[in-house]
Fold:
Amino acid sequence: MGESRGIERTRSSDMELSRSASRQHIDRLLSEAVTMFHRDGPLVNPLERIPSANSMEMRMRFVCEAKKFEYGLFWEFEGKQSLLCTSKVCISDQAGVNLFVDTSFTMFNRFSMGFGMPGRIGYTGNYEWHEDVRQLPAWSFQRKRQAEQAKLRTVIGVPLENGVVEFGTRETAEHTVNTVQYIQKLCQIMKPASE
Structure:
């Protein structure tokens, strides 16, 4: 009888150790996942480390939510990288912002390299951060009138390998390089290693 209780205690302590090791393993995996999330942003496809190319809208939406932007536009290179054309959009439910984005998508849907904010960013490879777009001259930001009507304040553009992403908000957002780097990491579409 005493021997069977001793065996049960041994089994019980072995199970406790096994559970403890499993919990430690799970805790370590969760800790690694949280660290990667804060460093790299969310994985679009959790089964892959490389986000899929068709998820730009999802990424822009995540940036809008995480960084409090009200819209995002993706200006994609076209024609041997001589033009930038709007290809993906993510917007809030603000009527004025919707009109601004619709106008950008229809009236100002392409920029030659070097012209307009998307064209300048695509040409130089440098980001632009305008804390108050109302203070820009019209020649520098062709959509200024529409931005003012939408009550937009801050507009930023960030270069990517395959185009330019633009985000804007009605709030004045102070310039931070960390936000630019975050956007570049999250929105950059990685090419498969075989290419």
Remarks:
- The longest helix spans residues 2-40.
- The two ends are 69 Å apart (CA to CA).
